[in-house]
Amino acid sequence: MAVEIVQCPVCKQKLGLQDYVTINTLLVCANVMCGTNLRVLSRHPTHVEQVPESATYSADSRPESYG
Ligand SMILES: [Zn+2]
Q1: Ligand 1: distance of its center to the CA of 7 in Å?
Q2: What CA dihedral angle connects 54, 20, 13 and 41, to 10 degrees?
Q3: Cα(54) to centroid of ligand 1, in Å?
């Protein structure tokens, strides 16, 4: 199973994203001291961006934690 490593843009925590994680998936940084909400912008290579916390509550899908 392929896992791609990306860094949290806020705290530089390394996060392992499984191959099945698609664009626009919401993630939560695995660093409990950070906990930033992240959105997958692209795959191969993978880029993530920080999402304002308020923007995640109305989303249909709940954030998942990776790493
Ligand atoms: Zn982080």
Answers
A1: 8
A2: -50
A3: 17
Q: How far is the CA of 41 from the centre of ligand 1 (A)?
A: 16
Q: What are the tokens at 30?
A: 């695995």
Sorted by where each starts, the structural domains of the chain and their CATH numbers stand as 3-65 (2.20.28.160)
Task: Judge residue 31's burial from the number of C-beta atoms within 10 Å of its C-beta, 0-12 exposed, 13-18 middle, 19 or more buried.
Answer: middle
pTM: 0.75
66 pLDDT tier (thresholds 50, 70, 90): low
